[in-house]
Amino acid sequence: MADSEPLAAKRCDSGSSSSVSMETISTLTELEDLEKVYQQLCAEEREVEVELDRLVGQEGSIHTKMLALQRMGPNLQLIGGDASQLSGMITFTCSLAENVSRKVRQLDLAKTRLYNVIQRADDILDLKFCTDGVQTALRNEDYEQAAAHIHRYLSLDQSVIELSRQGEE
Q1: CA quadruple 152, 157, 158, 160: dihedral positive or negative?
Q2: Residue 91 CA from chain centroid, whole number
Q3: CA 155, CA 130: separation in Å to the nearest integer?
Q4: Could you point out which of 19, 40, 61, 94 has its C-alpha 20 to 30 Å from the C-alpha of 113?
Q5: Which among 10, 33, 41, 36 has a CA at the least distance from the CA of 23?
Q6: How far apart, in whole angstroms, are the C-alpha atoms of residue 6 and residue 30?
Q7: What single DSSP character describes residue 141?
Q8: How many CA atoms lie less than 13 Å away from 26 in the CB half-sphere?
Q9: Which domain holds residue 112?
Q10: Do residues 128 and 149 make contact, with C-beta atoms less than 8 angstroms apart?
Q11: How far is residue 6's CA from residue 18's CA, in Å, rounded to a whole number?
Q12: Distance (Å, whole) CA 104 – CA 99
């Protein structure tokens, strides 16, 4: 087998660690081909030994890491339980925050309505003050004072006057 192509074609792809199959070796008849395969297998063996030595050298480190991971197991379970409890607390807090937010919106709406009511009451009191002032000024024949009250009446918001008329009806 002077040509190396048939040797490459007969390599084992079955997942074994050698690149040359037993079938290929058993078909070899030339000493030169056998020596090439032998050299190739020796080179592969050296590579495997180097890799094995490297892995054996890491055994202590891997063993230490495995022990550390085994010791972490209970802690990780505790952390998982704590995380679950924290998640429940966060969900509860979120629910409370939503309830508080809803109540704040309701209070804000009530405050706005109350402010509007107070503003209307103030406007109605101003309107009453103007009408009473005009009547008192006319009885006292103080026309300048009556004109001042009428001027103030005319400067009031027209919606207040309209609401006053609707209230009378």
Answers
A1: negative
A2: 14
A3: 11
A4: 94
A5: 10
A6: 13
A7: T
A8: 3
A9: 27-166
A10: no
A11: 16
A12: 9
9 domain residue, yes or no:
no
What DSSP assignment string belongs to 153-166? HHHS-HHHHHHHHH
In a domain, 61, yes or no: yes
Alpha carbon distance 155, 25 (integer Å): 116
Written as tens digits, the pLDDT of the chain (169 aa) is 444 444 433 344 334 557 788 888 888 778 888 888 889 889 999 999 999 988 888 888 888 988 988 888 888 888 989 999 999 999 999 999 999 999 999 999 999 999 989 988 888 888 889 889 999 999 999 889 989 988 888 887 776 667 666 666 6
Q: Specify the DSSP class assigned to residue 2.
A: -
Q: What is the DSSP letter of 140?
A: T
Instruction: Supply the pTM of this predicted model.
Output: 0.45
Q: Which helix (H) or strand (E) holds 70?
A: helix 59-139
Number of domains present in the structure of the chain: 1
Tokens matching residue 136: 């008192």
CA–CA distance, 136 with 151 (Å, rounded to integer): 15
